[in-house]
Design brief:
Layout (H helix, E strand, L loop, with lengths): L2 H34 L6 H7 L1 H31 L5 H9 L6 H12 L5 H6 L9 H26 L2 H9 L4 H29 L3 H7 L9 H11 L1 H32 L21 H28 L15 H7 L2 H34 L4 H13 L2 H11 L4 E5 L3 E5 L5 H11 L1 H13 L4 H8 L4 H7 L1 H21 L3 H6 L7 H12 L1 H32 L1
Antiparallel strand pairs: 1-2
Helix pairs in contact: 1-12, 1-15, 1-17, 3-7, 3-9, 5-7, 5-10, 5-13, 7-9, 7-10, 8-9, 9-12, 11-12, 12-17, 13-25, 14-25, 15-16, 15-18, 15-19, 15-22, 16-19, 17-18, 19-22, 20-21, 22-25, 24-25
Family: Belongs to the binding-protein-dependent transport system permease family.
InterPro entries: MetI-like, MetI-like_sf
Organism: Pyxidicoccus parkwayensis
Amino acid sequence: MSVRALSGRWLGLGAWLVPILFFAVGPVVVLLLRGAGVHGDAGLTWLASEGGALGNTLKVSTGAALLALVLGAPLSLLLFRTDLPLRGAFTVLFTLPSAIPAFIWGMGWLALASPRAGYLNRLLGEGTFDIYGATGIAFVEGLSGLPLVLLAGAAALRRVDPALEEAARVCGASPVRALLTTTLPLALPSLLSGAVMVFLMAASSFGVPYLLGVSASPPTRVLTTRIYELVLLGGDAGLARASVLATGLLLLVPLALLATWALGRSGRVRLSAGKGMSSRPFPLGRARGAATLAVGLVCAVWVLLPLAAILLTSLQRSFGADLAWRELTLAHWSGVLLEPRTLRATGRSLLLAAGAGVLVCVLGLAAAVLQRSFRRAGAGVEALAVWPYAVPGTVIALALLLAFSRDLRFILLDRVAFVLALAHTPWLLLIAYAAKYLALGARNSTEALAQIDPSLAEAARVSGASPLRAFLDAPLPLLRPALVVAFVLAFLACATEITMSVLLVPAGSEVLGTLLFELQSYADPAAAAVLACAFVALVVVGQALLARVGRRAAEVR
């Protein structure tokens, strides 16, 4: 390799590292240092007073993980290992909660099971259900995290060699016994790994605990809601205490990732060379009808009922009105969607989401190229690109608040000076979005680039093209579908994001997430329901676009 090419690689690595270290790694380091520096008057007395928030966080997260595991394990077997009718439709519906913000599912269950005005309580009697409190939060978080267990189980079941079941059958085991004693134990580590990710997701969640915990009697506070309260309190003392809690929340990330890694290693399945992976669906026989009815009932209650409750709330004159046709109206839809405040928030959200999507694709593609160029250091580049995705949004937002709360002045060569003023601007929100979802661009680009033969770019170089020209003409057109998928995923995540938006959005610059949060928490649940329906419609359109891109990519291959 020529000296010029070698220096170009290192220059590219440096250009990629500067924004990553400055805007993603540096703020978290500042947060950790700030949290480690709290002592003295704050001391152990204050820290002990926050034990309730930590206990509630662990309680809610454990409950959500157990619920997702208990429901996800049998559903994985039924959907991906049996001849259950309508498996494809059920799979789409059960994975829908992963694409819709958990806050919206919380709104749906609040409309259903609010102690006084909830639809179920009005039908079955006041007080039958109470969604407020730790149990309700764990229930909604378990619903939102169910796809993590379901998809982990699906991937594991596809890897298991069907010959193992056949061997068990030859030895005299019944079909059910063969399934439970061979396939299920091999898939169990992946299912547990999915449950660990649900635990981490629930621990870092903010919207649902705020919606169902702060208004409970007594209030159920978790680490994320306490961090939010301390940030609102303001001042050095409040931010310092919030830093300590955020550091504790951050420590859960490596523990969860370590547990996932250990479970993943224990769940590896080695196949003999040349062995086919096709498996015959397990026949349900006479139980087929009952199993279909049971899965359909769970799907209706778990997924469709809360969405229907949100739609009904958006059509009622007021939340809590009689369940009658005369109480239905479209006034909220026209009033909310055409309101200048909503239009401004929509425009700002779409602009920020599009900007973040472009940054995610550009920086993610650069990370993939650097991984291929620096084979030994490639793991480090991948780690830097992916790790913010596992960090709770509350922690990222607080870290950016601390790092850029004051203007930063830079002087180059004693001649050129410039000031970086990000506090109270939408730019901080854009940085948070891009840092959090950079993994989407990096993962998609890396996987797509791995399927492209390097000889394509080399052939362009031999024909006289420069390195940049060769990359633009040969690999980039083939990477386009993966980049489109990364952009759409990042766009949807940013346009519907709530946690970081609530902490970082400047006054007078609302986005859709903060508008939804304010309407539901303080003002008008019916108007919030209209926005939630718009969120769901946006997600469905985005998922349809992703499916179309996936089909076209498959046809090209």
